[in-house]
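Summary for the steering committee. One of the milestones for this cycle was to obtain a three-dimensional model of the protein with cobalt (II) ion bound, which we needed before selecting residues for the alanine scan. The sequence and ligand used are listed below.
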Amino acid sequence: MQSLRRLCIVLLLSLAVCASASAQTAPKQGILLVAFGSSMAEAGAAFAAIDEAYQREFPHTPIVWAFTSQIIRKKLAKEGIHVASISEGLNILAADGAKIVRVQSLHMMAGKEFAGLARALLVNIQKHPGRFDAVYLGRPLLESETDAEETANAVLNYLKKIRQPDEAIALMGHGQEHGLADLIFAGARSIFKSKDKNIFMATVEGSHGFDRLARELIDAKVRKVILAPLMLVAGDHARNDMAGTEPDSWANRLQQAGIAARANLQGLGEIPGIAAIFARHTRESEDDLTKEPVKE
Ligand code: CO
């Protein structure tokens, strides 16, 4: 399949020829998109935008969604909205005849949630040996320099429409208390800064929180800032912790520090260019979880 694709590209055959040739010879594929999830109706726009982009990028390939948060899935179920878990999503693809599954993490970075996804997939594969010929796991948004550059470009392009010349941008990432998040965000932050020195970034959890953000903005003599989530959806953290009306929201604390803050409540999923990074990771993944690691 891979080599056939490559051959098609090399020979510059039309997409239709590639599609029909692979339909006859290649095992059926399926895509599982995995996000933490959100129960906020407003967050739906980000999921819908990612879904649309995937339908365009991978036509004729079944696309199934899974949320990893049990709490959110239960809450949605009470409202009559059923979103699959990881194992349910794999069951749906198997019932549909998929032999090659491409799982795409829609996480920002390979933190706790991504590790949980990888582990859940491995356990599932062990429970159902031979069910799929391959299960590829696509990496999350921010890993390579290219990923961070493309993310910065997408955010800057998007906010260009509303940003005033003297306005800084401060992104709210999620982060985590333990693990890799601080270092990955430090890398992403420095690449973002190389694109525009007036981009700042802090996280809800982890070492680089609000106090450091406020200090950096004050030191840089920033008077106006747009707050925006560095998260797939503008959910609870973005709407409450970042932009909420409570006195301890980031927006209100910045106001108190004399910095005019306004929020842009669009999740990264809604920003043009972000879905393309995930889709590239989906296409590029050669990490087949059904196979032993290649020993070199
Ligand atoms: Co959280």
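Key point for the committee: The chain has a mean pLDDT of 92.
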